[in-house]
Design brief:
The protein has a 6-stranded antiparallel sheet with strand order 4-5-6-9-8-7. It has 262 residues and is an alpha+beta fold.
Length: 262
């Protein structure tokens, strides 16, 4: 038998899905819901907590509970890497017209707000193993955040690492003022004579940290996916290791695998 709070949650859920309660619309005050469902305030709050965990509603400061507006969906496919490589040797004007985020979201450059932070770090055991270099090797870390102009939270947080000495062969690559770089990382590597041969991606899922919950605007119960991207050049050398933290409530991963015919 369903508990009282589950019945309230289900009724509100159905009203939201039917469009009776629209995105951004405030729910009735908790006291009114108590009267409407003839249940106690703790029971009503328990029902609202369920809907918050499902990402259907959110508590807004000074406004109470409101139907959550769906975030812009990001569809990330494995075809993005070949798409980026195909653009590596295009002109600056052609490369500057669009980027991978626009491809993933269907937005235009004017819709996006981009930020980049650069720092130096020493490879720990994890990154040293990933690059195949000694612990303590000097790395350049670039942290990228891109968000839809109409939303506060970024689509993801991407931490890209390059071998510092390798990147410094082109001084422009170690200067964050040159971001966003038309053509992305593959074009950056091309400027120092590197061709990416393959990209290996490993995806795991886990609960978010407190910092990730705040930065990505996650509601309770939403997991994050962590994508470890490793770029390998034509000589078999690892040239980039990136960790991308993707919010599970607005990210879709799509993989197409061509199969050899008999």
């Amino acid at each position: 038998m369903a508990k009282a709070y589950e019945g309230i949650a289900d009724d509100l859920r159905q009203r939201i899905r039917a469009g009776e309660l629209k995105p951004g619309e405030r729910l009735p005050a908790e006291t009114k819901l108590v009267d409407q469902y003839r249940k106690s305030l703790p029971t009503v709050r328990q029902a609202l907590g369920v809907l918050q965990a499902e990402g259907l509603i959110e508590k807004q400061h000074g406004r109470g509970n409101a139907v959550r507006k769906p975030r812009r969906l990001v569809t990330r496919t494995n075809g993005r890497h070949q798409w980026e490589k195909d653009r590596v040797r295009q002109s600056l004007g052609e490369r500057g017209q669009t980027g991978a985020t626009e491809q993933d979201t269907g937005l235009t450059m004017s819709d996006l707000v981009f930020s980049a932070e650069f720092s130096e770090l020493e490879a720990d055991e994890d990154l040293a193993e990933a690059f195949g270099v000694p612990v303590g090797t000097r790395l350049l870390e670039r942290v990228y955040r891109t968000r839809y102009r109409e939303e506060e939270a970024p689509f993801n947080v991407a931490r890209s690492r390059l071998l510092y000495e390798m990147a410094a062969a082109n001084p422009a690559l170690v200067d964050p003022a040159n971001e966003p770089w038309p053509g992305g990382t593959q074009n950056q590597l091309h400027t120092i004579g590197i061709e990416v041969d393959r990209v290996v991606e490993r995806i795991t899922a886990r609960p978010p940290t407190f910092e990730e919950t705040e930065e990505l605007g996650l509601t309770a119960g939403v997991a994050v996916m962590v994508l470890r991207k490793t770029c390998v050049d034509a000589d078999g050398r690892v040239v980039e290791v990136a960790d991308v933290t993707l919010p599970g409530d607005r990210t879709e991963l799509e993989f197409t695998t061509p199969l050899a015919r008999w």
